[in-house]
Amino acid sequence: MSNHITTTNPPGPKGLPVLGNTLQFGRHTFNFLQQCRKEYGDVVYFEVLGQPFYQLNDPEDIHHVLVENNTNYTKGSFLTKQFGEFLGKGLLLNEGDDWRRQRHLVQPAFDPERISIYAEMMTDYTERLLAGWEAGTPRDIHTDMTRLTLEVAASTLLDIDIREESSELRSAFHDIMEEFRKRTARPVSLPQWVPTPRNRRYQHALEQINEIVYDIIARRRAEPGNGVVSMLLEASDEPDTTVNDKQLRDEIVTLLFAGHETTAIALTFTWYLLATHPRQEERLVAELDDVLDGEPPTMSAVPDLEYTRKVLKESLRLYPPVFGILREPVRDDQIGGYQIPSGATVAMNQIAVHHDPRFFDDPKAFTPERWSDAFEESLPQFAYFPFGGGPRRCIGERFAMLEATLVVATIAQQYHLELVSDRDLTLKPSVTTRPDKPIRVRPELR
Asked: For residues 305 and 291, is the Cβ–Cβ distance under 8 A?
């Protein structure tokens, strides 16, 4: 970080009067962010809907925001306006003392000992999914992975069997994601209260989610279990702690959404990469044969699945499910030689930094082998940050990596997934990084 501070804006792409860079950002989000890094350097300025954005591409600057000076940064009004109605004041969007209290209450669900108990459930749910597969019959792998991870999240984190509601809930989440995709692509739109087909679809999806979630709360009030809902209900009986149904709703929606969406996407992109890179798939299968010897994967086997872990790390690098982290400074800050005013939006985009040739040789290539111990030690901390960083680093990181490892091991041990849809992959931005078109594969028994 530079010691010389200038009050002029950093370099950045030219925009239009009033609109700024809104159309460029909305139409070609990922290319726009990557081109900003390539053309303008470590601190880039642009405007979206009149809001000033400062894009940070230097790992040291990202560390400054997320770790070193994190107390000066909030999630900010931009995120709240976009996602507040959907996620409320759950763990993802809440701030300050309320957030710290929530994190403390939810943390036990993600303790290592408890996560190790989830391993068998993760493998069992994957086997149950495979029981419905037929060799040679093409499948939409993103749909399958979404169904699987949603049911795993509900069972492990909430202690709820959600199979009966799974289809309705997945459909509602899909409509929510499509709404946010359209907001990104066309940031200027009619207010939510205008009864357009698009707005009605979004509101209906919210109503479906709320109906299911409030039913879960009622069931857990009547019959306590071992999941997060019961933990929060128990906490509400403690002095100075109140957890009403709206707070429970926000926490459950956040856990269900964050607990399944990003993992489903990470798995979807991993299957696409393995289907298009036979040499890496062969090496993965060889490791599974050697370590598992035909037995289902277990928690004890996970540390030995080194290449499997490298495949997942490289997938998360190439196609990070969360493509950017946004923060808003409470007070003016100084980053990379520039004055960052309070109220601006600071953007740290994995989709840009993870493809920076300063840190990754041949950054567009799928090279799991790059993830040696020596390489990881030499890599700047925030050159690779799929799970964020600092105090608000993803609470479910260990959970997600365990689930992804077990799912890949269970399926790849039994099936080769042949890509039958378009080999060219295009991405679309929503809350997460999503494939623009279905990724269809044909399972073939090994």
From this structure: yes
Spatial distance between the Cα atoms of 247 and 237, rounded to a whole number of angstroms:
15
Nearest to residue 408, comparing CAs of 334, 289, 277, 311? Answer: 311
The DSSP-derived string for 150-162 is HHHHHHHHH----
Is 162:150 a contact under the CB 8 Å cutoff? yes
Angle at 182 between CA 177 and CA 185, to 5 degrees: 125
d(CA 288, CA 265): 22
Phi/psi at 222 (nearest 5 deg)?
Answer: -75, -35
Amino acid at 373: D
Within 10 angstroms of residue 123's Cβ, the number of other Cβ atoms is: 20
CB atoms within 10 A of CB 298: 14
Give the integer Cα–Cα distance in Å for 273 and 280. 9
Which residues is 20 bridged to in the sheet?
A: 16, 48
Element (H, E) at 409: helix 397-414
Q: How far is CA 225 from CA 77, 154, 156, 330, in A?
A: 36, 12, 11, 40
Mean pLDDT of the 103-112 span: 88
Q: What digits encode the pLDDT tens for the residues 328-349?
A: 999 999 999 999 999 999 999 9
pTM: 0.94
- Which of 413, 318, 331, 398 lies closest to 363, judged by CA? 318
| Owner of token pair 């109906």 | 211
Phi, psi dihedral angles at 91 (to 5 degrees): -60, -30
Rg (CA), the chain: 22
| C-alpha distance from residue 426 to each of 247, 302, 414, 429, 437 (Å) | 37, 32, 28, 10, 7
